[in-house]
Fold this sequence. Notes:
By secondary structure, the chain is mainly β. The chain is built from two helices and 29 strands. The relative contact order is 0.12.
Amino acid sequence: MTSRLKLSLSAVLTVLLTSASATAATVYIADGSAGQIIVVDADTGAVERTITGLEAIHGLSGASGVRYLVAGSYSEVPATETLALAKPEGVSEDEHAAHHAKPAAGAMPKDAAISILTILDAKSGEALRRIEVPGAVHHTAASPDGRYAAATHPSGDGISIIDLEKLAFKAFVPTGSVPNYVVFSRDSDSVFVTNSGNKTISEVDIEQGFVRRNLLVGSSPEHLVISGDGSKLYVADAEIGKIHEIGVSDGAVLRSFEIGGELHGLDFSDDGNTLFVSGKGNDKLVAIDLHSGATRTVSLSPAPYHLTTIDGTGKIYVSSRDEPKIWIINQVDLTVIGEIAVSGEGHQMVVLW
């Protein structure tokens, strides 16, 4: 009886450990000028591997349950030039051409410079498709249902929509001056784009490829996130140091939070009740209680930059703009509990389970 009980407890423990391992989060970090993605175990903070061969990677996105990573390059060449994409040994010309997809004639703006959006298999890191897009890519986003991705083109005043089921360019949509950041609605039907050059947020219909409406917000809207229920947007008015809370239904500014200094990244706590903001200009990390409006601030130097929370771990990852590292932060008391070295600078980060 005792031996069978021990065996049963051992079996249960094995199942629990296996389950925990299977659901452990992986963090993918765009390592800008180093041209690579750093893959990190969220439980330990250890670098598992790197994915190389991605020039000037800034934008990086994915969605849980979706096999793809969407990586955007901030480098570009004139449309009159041909991008040199070497054919690997053992790959036929037809296979190589299929993996470097060109948009249909007329799909892109005339004479736009060309950049490359790379679709990768998240598990293996293999580049599955390289797609030409009209100009340098700043940020990307993948829809929650995994059907589409969007990429912003600050120099082209619009976004590209990518069909992730076909791994193909779908449309270019003009939005506004200097579009930088993008987030999908919770139902995946639309995408919100901040246009810092004309103080607006554009809501783009994904299926039809047009701007449904433009919302006038602050003076320089940049990073944005959407609440868990999809009813509110939180937008960093980067240059004047404010966060605006926007009602999605009517586009009204519901509240504004005075942070001060130049702002950059933002993300929610696990329960969605706290918004974390990186204050790049004043070397600080700020936590906003979304119920009371109260803020907590700690010093974080130098130049806290991109920020993402790791659900279920109580951690925040924050990159530095001035030093090649990622801070690992405790969500509760905002203390630094670890660091991850990068080679260039940490840009957009993705958490996948």
